[in-house]
Amino acid sequence: MSYVSGMIAAVPNANKDAFIAHAKEAAAFFREHGALSVVEGWGEDVPDGKVTSMPMAVQCKADETVVFSWIVWPDKATSEATFGKMMQDPRFAPETNPMPFDGQRLIFGGFVPVVEA
Length: 117
Known about the structure:
By secondary structure, this protein is of the alpha+beta class. It has one domain (3-55, 65-111): Alpha-Beta Plaits. Helix content is 29%, strand content 26%. It has helices at residues 16-32, 54-57, 76-88, and strands spanning 3-12, 37-42, 64-73, 107-111. The protein has a 4-stranded antiparallel sheet.
């Protein structure tokens, strides 16, 4: 059964183009290493909540947009191996290719699909 990596981040609106370029580079890397699909979604209808919400979860500021991303992998082992390789790849070193958003507010997790339709 497949495995899904999911991420939510707050990206400064001024960095939208830089984020898209960074995401395209990462998507190519993930696909190179076995990802079945990669989706990056720029928030369009992401309401604030009173108790919980995506904007609250990533401490989204007024000049930022919530981004929701997911990667479908053939299995968990491929996901883990690829993220390990990414941490060692000089193309993704923070010194030379910093993330265009605050990585400390990035939320991520791995999921086993229980329903696919």
